[in-house]
Amino acid sequence: MTTTAVEFEDDGNQLILVYRPHDGTNWVLRKIQEKGEVVIKGTFHLSDEHLVAHDQAPFEGDAFIDAGLGNTDHLDGPWMAFKIGSSYGDYFRLDPAVLDIDVPVLFSKDAPVTWRWFSTDHSVSILAVIAELKPSRIVIGGSEADAIPLSEYKKLIDQFPTRYEVRRYVQARVSTVVRQYSDAKVDAEAKLNAYVNKRVQTKGRDLFKPVRQAEIAKYEFLLEQLQQMLDSEDGYSEAVWQKEILQIVCLLNPKYIAAFPEVEIPDTDSGTKRFLDFLLVDASGNVDVIEIKRPFAKGLVTSTTYRDNHIASRDLSGTVMQIEKYLRHLNRWGAKGETALRKQIGDKLPSDFKIKITNPCGVIIMGREKGLTHAQLRDLEVTRRHYKHIADIVTYDELLRRLKFILKHLQAES
């Protein structure tokens, strides 16, 4: 039977590393005597304190058998036995001096330990690499809360970088520079990525799973609320309508963390003041402007045509002009405006939060598509794209569609 240079045996109370040096044990004993230790596979730092027996000085009598490790008949050729761990409940606690790391290491007694659980084929200590991440301890297998499951640790071992992968990584780092200035034809980075993608089998977790039902409930509520508002539009004042629609918009666009009504900005053309209906602030502090108009029965494009085109209605073109002027004044305000806005709305934001005026965008919520002909819908889309650089024009029917599609997708995944 083929044997390996490093094997492990235990009796439930101690973990023994059995080392079979190919060139006899004399050189190992001499090195321990001269250097104080011998390092095996770049991982195990073994000294005279760990050595409990070897082929020239085996356990006395049946001590090896009494220890529950069987007899020494199976240990063909030169061999050495080192105690590297002791019982610690359901684990073996490894001697930190053996691994030469300052993090406690526990291995489950159920773990089928081989040398590959400790070292790569190019003598790199796997546990030393983990210890560099500064965990309070390393626990492999068992029922402890911070234990790495045996199955996951086996995957880690199987996917640990090989010599080939390390060489590919070095080539990739070099190629990022060389390929910019030469006609090198090998894309080392692509080769590295292809190799790693093929070898690493880790699957991403389903992050939606714990919150999916809550998300479904949220979008069901928003859809029901919007539909109810559109069905009984006359029962809302403009202020209440805007407030509730604004909340729906912000919940559909989670990048916005706050919205502020009646924000004062300077009119740089007339020297007077203007008041934004609503100023949106995103998580990075950037501001945008939103206008919310009640649907009414007025269309977004004309019912009649001008040279065979349904053009933007007066309400829509006027709202776009209004937004465009707001954005122009904000951009002109610049750094002074950031300071002024911070004073206006800063008490409703974190103390270290900075307001930024960085080419703000506009959003317009208005109008219905219901009742529009195919030609009107087509020309409405042309109009929306024409004004895209100024504002994102969203109809109430589009808000409904977004909510329905998001809800349908979440329900299909649940």
Please characterize this protein's 3D structure.
This protein is an alpha+beta fold and 414 residues long. The chain has three domains: 6-159, no CATH class; 163-199, no CATH class; 212-413, no CATH class. Helix content is 39%, strand content 19%. It is built from twelve helices and 14 strands. The chain has helices at 26-35, 63-66, 96-99, 126-131, 150-159, 163-181, 188-199, 212-231, 238-252, 314-345, 374-386, 396-413, and strands at residues 6-10, 14-19, 38-40, 44-46, 51-54, 80-88, 91-94, 105-108, 138-140, 256-267, 272-282, 287-292, 362-365, 391-394.
Seen as an oligomer or otherwise, the chain set is single chain
Secondary structure: helix percent: 25-40%
Mean pLDDT: 86
Number of DSSP strand runs: 14
Radius of gyration: 36 Å
In total, the number of domains comes to 3
Number of helices: 12
The largest pleated sheet is described as: 7 strands, mixed
Query: How far is it from the N-terminal to the C-terminal residue, by CA?
Result: 52 Å
Coarse shape: elongated
Secondary structural class: alpha+beta
Note the run of SSEs as H and E.
Answer: EEHEEEHEEHEHEHHHHHEEEHEHEH
